[in-house]
């Protein structure tokens, strides 16, 4: 079964709920104009938590095919965890995807591999599809340890899951040095790590789950570079930051098949 590409927009802490709904409306109009087939290239947006409800109301009310994602989820199931948002609460809001272990959370919120593993398991138990983010900082890349580093992060995050669970989730390779810097990894850099992550899944679980798991690239993805990245055999989509907060740019990324590589 070929893997369906996924283009997901991580809005980070950038758009409020009004800007977010406007963006989703514009995105949908633009993609409808282009007669976009959402079953051929899946599209998701990841608003901040306070915007989820408004964006979900729009998606449901207008029967849009854009999927909803969240940027984080609690490692706890329910109860006295002030400020946390549970997987069940997100699922009830119509959320499909949730980013787990984004490098900004690892860096600024002290999330280590154990937390990422707990959040991944909790997301799955709550009926969400985790987008497990991994990526190396610049010094690790310079030391040519990026494959070991990212494979280690994935192995840790997926420990304890079943092959079936792994087959259904999403991995995202986001080199830290390429996030928000304009410094995009080359298509070959993206392919090298995405292929290594897939092989690691085959080794830790089985070939069927490795063939099914989707691996995204993230880090300064723009309309001008997406087509060559998507040509790589082990890259199944993109996790887009800055460019996803502009409806025109994000639509152009979703429509990567329209541009030359
Ligand atoms: O962190 C990212 C997506 O999760 C990438 O961000 P940029 O596309 O802004 O580099």
Automatic annotation (TrEMBL):
Belongs to the triosephosphate isomerase family. Keywords: Cytoplasm, Gluconeogenesis, Glycolysis, Isomerase. InterPro entries: Aldolase_TIM (IPR013785), TIM_sf (IPR035990), TrioseP_Isoase_bac/euk (IPR022896), Triosephosphate_isomerase (IPR000652), Triosephosphate_isomerase_AS (IPR020861). Gene3D superfamilies: Aldolase class I. Pathway: Carbohydrate biosynthesis; gluconeogenesis; Carbohydrate degradation; glycolysis; D-glyceraldehyde 3-phosphate from glycerone phosphate: step 1/1. Involved in the gluconeogenesis. Catalyzes stereospecifically the conversion of dihydroxyacetone phosphate (DHAP) to D-glyceraldehyde-3-phosphate (G3P). Substrate binds at residues 10-12, 180, 220, 241-242. Pfam families: TIM. One of its GO terms (molecular function) is triose-phosphate isomerase activity. The active site is at residues 102, 174. Its main location: cytoplasm. Its EC number is 5.3.1.1. It comes from Kineococcus halophytocola. It comes from the Bacteria. It is found in: Cytoplasm. This is Triosephosphate isomerase. It catalyses: D-glyceraldehyde 3-phosphate = dihydroxyacetone phosphate. Homodimer.
């Amino acid at each position: 079964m070929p893997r369906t590409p996924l283009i997901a927009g991580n809005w980070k802490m950038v758009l409020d709920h009004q800007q977010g709904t406007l963006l989703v409306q514009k995105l949908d109009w633009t993609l409808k104009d282009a007669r976009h087939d959402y079953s051929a290239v899946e599209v998701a947006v990841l608003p901040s938590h306070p915007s989820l409800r408004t964006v979900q109301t729009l998606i449901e009310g207008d029967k849009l095919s854009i999927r909803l994602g969240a940027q984080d989820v609690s490692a706890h199931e329910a109860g006295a965890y002030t400020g946390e948002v549970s997987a069940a609460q997100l699922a009830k809001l119509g959320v499909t995807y949730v980013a787990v272990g984004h490098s900004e959370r690892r860096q600024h919120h002290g999330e280590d591999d154990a937390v990422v593993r707990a959040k991944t398991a909790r997301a799955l138990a709550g009926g969400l599809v985790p987008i497990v983010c991994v990526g190396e900082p610049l010094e690790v890349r310079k030391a040519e340890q990026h494959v070991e580093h990212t494979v280690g992060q994935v192995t840790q995050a997926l420990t304890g899951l079943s092959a079936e669970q792994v087959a259904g989730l999403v991995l995202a390779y986001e080199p830290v040095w390429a996030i928000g810097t304009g410094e995009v990894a080359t298509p070959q850099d993206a392919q090298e790590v995405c292929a290594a992550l897939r092989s690691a899944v085959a080794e830790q679980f089985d070939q069927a789950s490795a063939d099914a798991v989707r691996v995204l690239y993230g880090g300064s993805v723009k309309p001008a570079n997406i087509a060559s990245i998507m040509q790589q055999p082990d890259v199944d989509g993109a996790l887009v930051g800055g460019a996803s907060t502009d409806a025109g740019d994000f639509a152009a990324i979703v429509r990567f098949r329209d541009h030359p590589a």
